[in-house]
Amino acid sequence: MTYPSDRPATWFVTGASRGLGLALVKHLLGRGDNVAATTRSTARLVAALDGTDTSNLLPLAVQLTDVEAVTRGIAETTTRFGGIDVVVNNAGYGYLGAVEETSDADVQAMFDVQVRGTWNVIRAALPGMRAVGSGHIINVSSILGLLSFPGWGLYCAGKYAIEGLSESLAAEVADFGISVSVVEPGYFNTDFLTDHSLALPETTTDAYPAIREMVAQHKAMPGTQPGDPDKAAAALSAIAQQGGPLRQQLGSDSSGLAENKANNLLEQIRDGRELAHSTDYSK
Fold first, then answer.
1. Confidence (pTM)
2. What is the pLDDT of residue 146?
3. Which of 150, 157, 230, 280 registers the highest number of CB atoms within 10 A of its CB?
4. Any idea where the domains of the chain sit in the sequence?
5. Which are the catalytic amino acids?
6. Which architecture, in CATH terms, is 10-252?
7. Average pLDDT, the chain
């Protein structure tokens, strides 16, 4: 059992001052759990939680790419609450532009936040979880960690990396009583598609007009997304309480796209079976 039944659970949540992270923090504090919440601005987080009982909150200003800062954050959480039951790696941002348009700096920044930051938190949290023989790590991916759309290549690359990391990690820590889940949200009614969270390439080319149109469409989308962030927060809590599964889509759009991807992938595998088998040594 990775979730305590005899006391409030302690959560370590990254990217907590906006979007799904903020909705999750509010939900957890409302149910009486302990929450260590990382953000680049604790003032923004506290302001966003106005009207919420924050007596069980530990706000942490942590740069997730700073290994020492992450280690200190995990240590402060353990000192304050006695340990960590659930880690939610949620921090991240979007990027919408053609692969050709991405700069070296764009690629490094995306992988620093999405991959290195997640990796740093996991490495810092695991020793404590292994010591007590329980815990749950939830990595927030995206439906774009399972399939790709034009214009989202860099974002997808980061999320695909999270999917692979999560699958390997789940197998590595299962014998320690630790569960791992990767969640794949679709479009949720957050500020993900605003200037706060959606990056664009500094230099573009007129070779990709469809992607420029996609940018315009996404900029006009806020407020029309089908996903309810409060319901997503409740779903994340349920995943931790139930101890799984390894992969979970969030949103009807995500679920439908994932099913189509699985069906298409199976068809491609079957279509390519003869060629695949032909590359073995002859018997």
1. 0.95
2. 97
3. 157
4. 10-252
5. 141, 155, 159
6. 3-Layer(aba) Sandwich (3.40)
7. 96
